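Notebook B, p. 112. Complex prediction, attempt 2.
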Amino acid sequence: MTPEILDLLFPNKLPTVAEIEAKYPPRQLPEGAVVSRLAPSPTGYLHIGNFYQGFMAERLAHQHNGVFFLRIEDTDQKREIEGAVDVVLKALAHYGVHPDEGSTLDKGEVGVYAPYTQSKRKDIYQAYAKELVAKGAAYPCFCSEEDVEMRRKVQTKQGLRPGYYGSYAKCRNLTDEEILANLKAGKPFCIRLRSTGDYSKRIVVDDLLKGKVSLPEYDIDVVIIKANDGLPTYHFAHLIDDHLMGTTHVIRGEDWLPSVPLHIQLFNLMGWPLPQYGHHALLQKLGEDGKRRKISKRLDPEANIAYFAEHGYPQDAVLEYLMNLMNASFEDWRKANPTIPVMDFPMDIHKISNTAGALFDMVKLNSIAREVVARMTAEEVYDKVLTWAKEYKPEFATVLENNRDKCIAIFNIERGIGTKSRKDLFKWEDAEHEMEFFFNRPAYDESLLAPLAHEDIQKVAAEFAAIYDPADDNQAWFAKVKQVAEQNGFATDMKAYKADPSGFKGSVADVAKILRVAITGRVQSPDLCSIMKILGKDEVAERLKING
RNA sequence: GACCCUAUCAUCUAACGGUUAGGAUACGGCCCUCUCAAGGCCGGUACACGGGUUCAAAUCCCGUUAGGGUCGCCA
C-alpha cells in the first residue's frame, strides 16, 4: 500500500496510534477490579433488555471495586434522535444505576477516556484503521450496495453461506493500480478487515455466563469503516473503545455470541488482551401465537424502560424484578433481609441462569411491587406518589400537596410492618382512583345494597351517624356497628346468622356494607373505621344522610 | 439453508451423579374476617423424547424434536 493511496483513503490529519495510546493509558486499578459498560444507541428509547444488561454490568463493576461507564454508540447517524442521550441518562438516574464515566445530565462528559460518544471519536478509529490498511490487515472495498445485494442473492440461491469471504471478497486482492484508479474515479469505499479466519476451524471461547462455547472461526471480511461517513461499525468501535477504555468485562445479550470469533480475531490482530465476555439470555415475551419472541419495541409497551416510570412502578420493584431474573436466590435473600437496599444484594455473575431467555412476567413484577410498597412508610409512599404525579398528573399533584397530612393518613391505613401491610396499591398511577372518595363525596347508589330494604338502610345509616365518634378505636367503632345491627334486626354474630339466615334481616356484615356504600360509594374498601376517622364526624354524618 | 444457544410445574427458577425433585409468582381450598387487599395453613401441576455411560442420571455423552438467536456499510 503506497503512502499516496493511504493519504487518499484517509485525507484528514490523524493522530498517530502511539499518540492515542499515550493519551489513554491503561487504568490503574486494584487486582480483580471489574470495568464494564452500558453502550446504548441513542434512539430516543432505552429498551428494557438494554437496561437489564446495563444493570448487570453496573452491579458487576461496583461490587468488584471497579468502574462502570456509559458509552454512546451513535455510529449509525440514520437512527439518531435529538435528546436521546438524555432519555438514557434520565432512565439510569431514575433507578440509581450510576455510571462513573460518560455523559451526564448536568456536567457534560466526565472521565479521562473521553470522549465517550463514538461519533466524536472518528479520528481515533480512523487512525487505527489507517494503520491496519498500511499493514495490509485491512483494505478498501469499492463494492456498491447493489454489488453486495447481488452477491448475497447469488449465495443464498446456491444454498451458500452469505457473506463477503473467500472468492466473494472481490476487492480483497485489488492491486495498488486498481485501487488508485477507483479512488481517482471518485468511487466511494469502505474499509474491510482482511480476515485471517478459517471457517473450517473452530475456536473455543470461555464465556462468563455460557461457559465453553465452540464456534467456527470468522472468515468474513467485515466492514470496519463505513463508506458514507467514515465512522466505524460496531465491531471495530468495540475493539478500539473497549481496549482504550480498559473494559475488562463485556456483558451483553447473547445475540452477540455469533460475532465473538470476529471480536477475538480483532483483539488478537492488535495484540491486545481480550476482555472477559459474558453473554446473557434475551428477555422474551409470549406472542399472540403462543410462541416466545424477543420483547419488541413495536408490540410491547413494557419494552421501553420508561413504561414503568410512566405507570408509577416503584424503582425498587423494577430493580428487584430484574435482579430476581439475574439471581433467583435474590428472593431468599430479600426474605432474610427485608430492610436492606437492593443494591446491597451480592449479585453473583456465576449464578446467572444459563438458560433460554426468561419470559417477562408482569404479574410477578406486580407482586414484587406490592412487597416493595408494603415496606415503605406512609411518608415514603406520599413522597413517591407526589413525585410521580408532578410529572405525569399535575392536577393530582396539587391535591396531594394541598392535603399532605390527610394523604399520609390515607396511605397509613392498615400499613403494618412489612408483610402485614395492605397490598392493593403497588403503582402510583392507581393512587388517585384509590383515594378518590376521600376528596369527592361519592354518589349514593342504592342498587349496590340490593336486596336490603330502603327503610332499613336509612335507619341503619341514621342511627350509626347519631352515635359515631371519631375518637373511638377500632373495637369501640365495631361495637357501635354491632349495636346498630342489633337495634335493626341484623345478626351481630356471623355464626348465628349463618345458622339461621331467615331469622334476621341480614348480618353485621350487611350493616357494614350499608355504611361502606354510603361513605365510599363502593362495596369494597380499606378499613372503614380508619376511613371515617380521616373524613371526620361532619363529613361522615353528611354521607350517612340517606334521603327518603 | 448454515452456524450458535437453550430445554425442570402455567411463569421465574433451585438441584452442580444418590432429594418424598425445593422455593417464589399464579391458580384452587380452608381459616381469619365489617367488604376488599393482606396474613396463616393446605393442595394440584414439572425433569421434552429416544438411546447410551454408571451400582445409581433431571444432572454426563450422542441423537431427535421444539423454542430462541445470528448470518447488514444496524447495534
